[in-house]
Design brief:
Radius of gyration: 16 Å
Shape: globular
Number of helices: 4
Order of helices and strands: HHHH
Structural class: mainly alpha
Number of strands: 0
Distance between the termini: 27 Å
Mean pLDDT: 88
Largest sheet: none
Number of domains: 2
């Protein structure tokens, strides 16, 4: 998990820095930098939370719960009103819309 977070954080921060079109660029970088400064283990930015609580996906019910949790994160954050409205979410595919990436839906 540590290596995944390290790799993806470098890639995502780089993508944010290089995306001139992103209107929230400065805000995202500022927040990541503030969290990074608050943590003595970081050199500049912090993208991921340090804790993780892996949950074994042992049944369809648990997978559905986790998928709903992920899909409702942008709603809870106040970014959108409905999960399928968040352009970067697979919730679009589950709502019958086309998402940014092709995926295999969990049925």
């Amino acid at each position: 998990m540590r290596d995944v977070k390290k790799f993806t954080s470098f890639k995502l921060i780089g993508a944010i820095m290089n995306n001139i079109q992103e209107s929230r660029k400065e805000w995202m970088l500022r927040l990541s930098e503030e969290y990074g400064k608050a943590n003595p283990n970081n050199t500049k930015y912090q993208f991921w939370q340090h804790d993780n609580h892996p949950i074994e996906l042992t049944s369809n019910e648990i997978m559905d719960q986790r998928l709903d949790y992920i899909h409702y994160n942008p709603v809870e954050a106040g970014i959108v009103e409905q999960p399928h409205e968040y352009i970067y979410s697979s919730a679009r595919d589950y709502a019958g819309l086309v998402g940014l990436l092709s995926l295999v839906k969990i049925e």
